């Protein structure tokens, strides 16, 4: 956290003093066994991301190496658990030691952009032509583009083809169909439907396609249009078509239930594809999440990480970082990356190619094409709205509040916090 | 600790044993009860191993018994997590050393010297336990950046020592307050100053309490996640609690491998526990009871 | 301990060597100073910063610019108006008292039990500490699975022995989730309590028990009249340390329920986290953190009061 007296910005006048300090602490460093990263290596770019998972880390490194090599650069990743990226980045910011590239969750971008700590990407030469509307919106704050996503994800309805066929249930397209299908598919230990309603970002992500499709507005929760979505979730559980454990199930738990044959349909994202593909017992397919009424449309959310360039004060390094980011986002690299991590490329042309190569995942690709960014309307206010929405569906699902009351209370808590 | 005039605690009484005179049958019943208690309390651990032995099965589909036990997870973890285990060991042992070096003299001073402000210091020590870890980590990080202690073993060791320090001061203080004064007095008469008397007599007499504090500090440091995460920006110093995340992604976690890591990471600490057990038993309250 | 303080006071010689006095004073402080300096750096400084922060408008921007304008009592007012605060306080109280009572009673029972001499006693004592070695992120996921209402082992077992006829909603029912969190925390805390209390039992001299037996005291009477009073100092240490680590609990609840369902497991610890790291309002988060410290300060005062005799000679 900041302490300007102790960590002066490296203005030219102070740089000599800083160097002196570095020299004097070298002895200390020797004692401390390992190195001081005091002066950045000009040939190495640094990245902070959430790719702790070995496979994802290695995949990332491959692309970084490929693009870094074009400019004679090495790229070093620092990966921390996804829930820790924001606090880690803020701490680094306070000590002026932020990495050259900062990869944030899209929903965290406005909070960072609002600090003026990020560089706008277009002036640095990052090509934004052909990016999908959702990707542009997710990477922008107040009309300026700060973060580019190589690929994005959304949510769709994944269903067990065998169970649906056996019960002669067609894939539901409307909420009414969803309710009756889920009911008919429920038998014994198998629920018709599974979703995640945890009180965190993931639970809210799952709620959004229903909330938005019913006309809900995250900036005006108390217009009560989202109540229908709350009712839908509530009915699924009170019908017994979905487990009341949804309030504690993570998206991975939901997938586990599906793979164990305990759920006939689930809401989930393309990141589950490797797990779904790794087994042969359950046959599955992807469909669009049902719309409220026949002929209506579904509004899924867009999710994923965006690469940003923090204002580190090193113009030359920022320029290099921009070049590497640009390289990562060529059409070819986007398609390759999307296939590596089962996400959908953000350049429209790349997405089309991806869709052609992976027909089974078309449901996800279609969702992304129309998906909407969580922060488009409320910007940096999203974290507060997210907490309020989570409180709303949790209290409805556990029966402690009616949908209308929960939404009014949610808006009240957003208003109170933003005072 | 070198040769000392008194090398064992003078309170060498035989501790009371509840059922020394119990019959064989009663002992057998007790043993059976003990097994039952163990089974219930350790079931979650069994479950961890069970999951680790069934790679490729989702958590919801894990069998109660690993019928087709697959050691793949353990092999994978052993191959890739060795250096992190070593780091954890080094950091935890370092933290124990720092913690004891600070806590032992302080506890003695607080127990014996009747310094002004003793109450305040003890009060402060109790309060320190309450400062949320996140707050400490954030503040320590900003100081560490200035001191160039980020990404160093020394930095992490110093920080981890804080996990056991208040506990050690409280425990050692109550232990040392109860040491028989006559023995220490005798050393003064022999011309030793307070410091040498402390080194030669108090420390050896407090051996069990020191081991207890060391053990707990080791366990606190071994399981630290927050400091390791906060005070490192590279992979240079990566204890096992962090490297475990190599099996946990933003969306999908490989619980089998995580459980295998947790089980393997528990082994060195478990060995230490078993070895230290007899000292711990004797060292917790020490002479506090008379 | 109660007897040792007066004894040692009586035994302190009339300042053995007057000529050594200046050195001694310097040396005496030398014993305490390093730890005090260390604690000031690692606890005092963060604490002061946290209190300051609670009066500042502290946002993500602050991390970049370093400036956090003072906002007077703004954060405090916002937090005190937050309807979650009252709930969180109550949950924290229930959680702390419930956890401590459970950990302590079971820990003590096990300590007494394993104090006997029988096959496996030593081994069992060591092995029972194992739960302590499991990282929280792992043990909480294991417990989440064990307590799962549909597939969890706990419900399966309860239904098999007909203790429950329908699945218990351990984690998804707002009226049970806090209890479940307490149960898991008890499981985590048993080893610590058992080890320390067992150590205390070991120190009770055999003669005392023999005397009690001669007086014809039964096992329960012996426990109440001999064991408990003799164990008092150790019990105090265990409870104080237990209180301090339980009241600020965060990671367990975060991993188990995330504060839900419907905020039924929201505690002061999770509230701080939510305000600071989800809403990114670090000033308000600091208010709750400061409240936590203040509560424990009150507790610490009571502790010192209760043990006044011990400190009597030391002022």
Describe this structure in words.
- The complex is a heterotrimer of chains A (419), B (290) and C (315).
- Chain A has helices spanning 12-31, 54-69, 85-94, 109-113, 133-138, 161-166, 175-185, 201-213, 227-238, 251-259, 273-277, 315-328, 331-341, 348-357, 362-370, 382-397, 403-417; strands at 44-49, 74-79, 101-105, 140-141, 144-145, 147-148, 151-152, 156-160, 191-194, 263-268, 284-287, 301-302, 305-308, 344-345, 372-373.
- By secondary structure, chain A is an alpha/beta fold.
- Chain A has 2 domains: 38-152 and 303-373, D-Maltodextrin-Binding Protein, domain 2; 156-299 and 378-417, 3-Layer(aba) Sandwich (D-Maltodextrin-Binding Protein, domain 2), CATH 3.40.190.
- In chain A, the strands form 5 sheets. A 5-stranded mixed sheet of chain A has the order 2-1-3-13-6. A 4-stranded mixed sheet of chain A has the order 9-10-8-11. A two-stranded antiparallel ribbon of chain A has the order 4-5.
- The longest helix of chain A has 20 residues, at 12-31.
- Chain B is globular.
- Chain B has 2 domains: 20-70, no CATH class; 81-288, MetI-like fold (Orthogonal Bundle).
- Mean pLDDT of chain B is 81; it is low at 1-15, 17-21 and 285-290.
- The two termini of chain B are 27 Å apart.
- Chain C has 315 residues and is an all-alpha fold.
- Chain C has a domain at 84-280: MetI-like fold, CATH 1.10.3720.10.
- Chain C has helices spanning 4-11, 21-53, 60-65, 74-81, 83-114, 121-127, 136-146, 153-160, 177-202, 206-214, 219-247, 251-256, 268-278, 282-306, 308-311.
- Chain C is globular and about 70 Å long.
- Chains in contact: A-B, A-C, B-C.
- The interface between A and B is large, with 55 and 39 residues.
């Amino acid at each position: 956290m900041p302490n300007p007296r102790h960590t002066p910005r490296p203005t030219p006048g102070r740089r000599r003093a800083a160097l002196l300090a570095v020299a004097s602490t070298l002895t200390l460093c020797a004692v401390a066994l390992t190195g001081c990263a005091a002066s950045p290596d000009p040939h190495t770019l640094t990245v902070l991301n959430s790719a702790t998972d070995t496979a994802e880390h290695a995949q990332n490194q491959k692309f970084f190496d490929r693009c870094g090599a074009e400019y004679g650069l090495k790229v070093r990743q620092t990966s921390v658990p996804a829930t820790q990226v924001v606090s880690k980045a803020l701490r680094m910011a306070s000590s002026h030691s932020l990495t050259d590239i900062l990869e944030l969750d899209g929903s965290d971008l406005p909070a960072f952009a609002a600090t003026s700590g990020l560089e706008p990407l277009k002036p640095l030469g990052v090509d934004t032509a052909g990016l999908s509307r959702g990707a542009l919106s997710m990477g922008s704050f107040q009309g300026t583009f700060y973060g580019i996503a190589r690929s994005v994800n959304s949510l769709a309805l994944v269903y067990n083809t065998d169970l649906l066929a056996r019960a002669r249930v067609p894939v539901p397209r409307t909420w009414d169909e969803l309710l009756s299908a889920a009911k008919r598919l429920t038998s014994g230990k198998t629920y018709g439907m599974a979703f995640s309603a945890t009180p965190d970002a993931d639970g809210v992500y799952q709620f959004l396609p229903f909330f938005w499709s019913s006309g809900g507005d995250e900036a005006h929760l108390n217009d009560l249009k989202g109540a229908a979505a709350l009712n839908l979730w509530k009915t699924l559980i009170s019908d017994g078509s979905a487990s009341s454990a949804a309030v504690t199930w993570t998206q991975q738990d939901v997938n586990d239930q599906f793979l164990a044959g305990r759920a006939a349909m689930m809401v989930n994202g393309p990141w589950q594809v490797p797990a779904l593909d790794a087994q042969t017992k359950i046959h599955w397919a992807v469909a669009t999440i049902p719309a409220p009424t026949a002929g209506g449309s579904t509004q899924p959310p867009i999710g994923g990480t965006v690469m940003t360039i923090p204002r580190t004060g090193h113009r030359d390094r920022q320029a290099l970082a921009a070049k590497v980011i640009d390289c990562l986002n060529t059409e070819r690299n986007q398609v390759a990356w999307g296939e590596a991590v089962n996400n959908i490329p953000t350049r429209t042309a790349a997405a089309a190619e991806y869709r052609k190569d992976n027909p089974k995942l078309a449901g996800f690709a279609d969702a992304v094409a129309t998906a909407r960014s969580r922060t488009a309307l409320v910007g940096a206010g999203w974290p507060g709205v997210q907490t309020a929405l989570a409180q709303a569906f949790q209290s409805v699902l556990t029966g402690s509040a009616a949908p209308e009351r929960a939404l009014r209370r949610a808006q009240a808590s957003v208003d109170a916090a933003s005072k | 600790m070198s040769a000392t005039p008194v090398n064992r605690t003078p309170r060498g009484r035989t501790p009371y044993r509840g059922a020394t005179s119990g019959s064989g049958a009663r002992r057998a019943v007790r043993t059976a009860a003990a097994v039952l208690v163990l089974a219930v309390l350790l079931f979650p651990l069994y479950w961890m191993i069970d999951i680790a032995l069934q790679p490729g099965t989702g958590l919801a589909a894990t069998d109660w018994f690993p019928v087709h036990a697959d050691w793949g997870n353990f092999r994978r973890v052993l191959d890739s997590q060795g250096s992190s285990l070593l780091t954890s060991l080094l950091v935890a042992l370092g933290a124990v050393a720092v913690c004891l070096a600070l806590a032992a003299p302080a506890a003695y001073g607080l127990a014996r010297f009747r310094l002004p402000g003793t109450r305040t210091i003890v009060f402060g020590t109790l309060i320190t336990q309450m400062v949320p870890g996140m707050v400490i980590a954030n503040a320590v990080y900003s100081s560490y950046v200035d001191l160039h202690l980020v990404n160093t073993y020394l930095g992490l060791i110093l920080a981890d020592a804080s996990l056991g320090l208040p506990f050690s001061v409280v425990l050692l203080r109550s232990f040392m307050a109860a040491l028989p004064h006559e023995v220490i007095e005798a050393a003064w008469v022999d011309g030793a100053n307070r410091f040498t008397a402390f080194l030669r007599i108090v420390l050896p007499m407090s051996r069990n309490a020191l081991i207890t504090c060391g053990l707990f500090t080791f366990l606190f440091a071994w399981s630290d996640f927050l400091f390791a995460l906060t005070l490192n920006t590279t992979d240079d110093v990566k204890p096992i609690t962090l490297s475990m995340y190599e099996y946990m992604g933003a969306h999908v976690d490989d619980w089998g491998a995580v459980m295998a890591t947790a089980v393997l990471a528990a082994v060195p600490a478990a060995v230490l526990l078993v070895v230290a057990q007899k000292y711990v038993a004797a060292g917790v309250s020490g002479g506090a009871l008379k | 301990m109660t007897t040792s303080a007066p004894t040692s006071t009586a035994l302190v010689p009339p300042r053995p060597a007057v000529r050594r006095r200046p050195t001694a004073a310097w040396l005496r402080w030398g014993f305490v100073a390093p730890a005090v300096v260390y604690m000031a750096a690692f606890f005092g400084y963060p604490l002061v910063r946290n209190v300051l922060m609670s009066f500042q408008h502290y946002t993500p921007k602050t991390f970049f610019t370093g400036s956090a304008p003072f906002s007077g009592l703004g954060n405090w007012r916002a937090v005190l108006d937050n309807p979650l605060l009252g709930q969180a306080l109550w949950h924290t109280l229930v959680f702390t008292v419930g956890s401590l009572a459970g950990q302590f009673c079971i820990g003590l029972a096990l300590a007494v039990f394993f104090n006997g001499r029988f096959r496996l006693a030593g081994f069992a004592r060591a092995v029972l500490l194992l739960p302590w070695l499991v990282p929280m992120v792992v043990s909480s996921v294991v417990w989440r699975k064990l307590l799962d209402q549909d597939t969890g082992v706990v419900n399966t077992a309860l239904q098999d022995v007909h203790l429950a006829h329908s699945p218990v909603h351990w984690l998804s029912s707002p009226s049970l989730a806090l209890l479940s969190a307490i149960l898991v925390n008890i499981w985590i805390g048993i080893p610590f309590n058992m080890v320390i209390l067992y150590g205390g039992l070991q120190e009770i001299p055999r003669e005392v028990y023999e005397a009690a037996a001669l007086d014809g005291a039964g096992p329960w009477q012996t426990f109440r009249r001999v064991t408990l009073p003799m164990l008092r100092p150790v019990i105090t240490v265990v409870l104080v340390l237990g209180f301090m680590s339980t009241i600020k609990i965060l990671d367990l609840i975060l991993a188990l329920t995330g504060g839900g369902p419907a905020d039924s497991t929201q505690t002061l610890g999770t509230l701080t986290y939510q305000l600071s790291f989800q809403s990114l309002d670090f000033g308000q988060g600091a208010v709750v953190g400061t409240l936590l410290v203040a509560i424990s300060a009150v507790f610490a005062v009571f502790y010192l009061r209760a043990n006044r005799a011990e400190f009597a000679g030391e002022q």
